[in-house]
Design goal:
mainly beta; eight-stranded antiparallel beta barrel; 1 helix
């Protein structure tokens, strides 16, 4: 009986000391991806760092998703841990991300990891 009480007490202490981070994910900010072994050959129209700036809970602007010098803007939705960008006449790309943690997104189309800037 003493062992049972000791085990129960130990479990109670352990679970009360465990901290869970239930803070909401703050998507706002800039996420970047550096293209490995990128060589733009000195061409300023080719970028080796792609970026997405989440400006609020439904819009991103600017977006550099192709590595070229054209930037885009669009809206997005979050469903559980998946972010899906909406297509439009000005943004006709399949772009979606899985939220890995508060600082990392994984692009679903190519498994690249995008990191939130500090």
């Amino acid at each position: 009986m003493k062992n049972f009480i000791f085990i129960l007490f130990s479990i109670l202490i352990f679970t009360s000391c465990t901290k869970e981070d239930n803070s909401p994910f703050d998507i706002n900010g800039m996420f970047t991806y550096n293209i490995p072994n990128c060589d733009n050959g000195g061409n300023p129209e080719i970028h080796c760092t792609l970026f997405i700036n989440f400006v609020n809970d439904s819009n991103v602007s600017p977006i550099s998703i192709t590595g070229g010098d054209i930037v885009y803007e669009t809206s997005y939705v979050i469903n559980k841990s998946i972010i899906k960008f909406n297509k439009s006449s000005k943004f006709n790309f399949n772009v979606s991300f899985e939220i890995i943690n508060n600082k990392t997104l994984k692009r679903i189309e190519d498994n690249t990891l995008w990191v939130k800037e500090e």
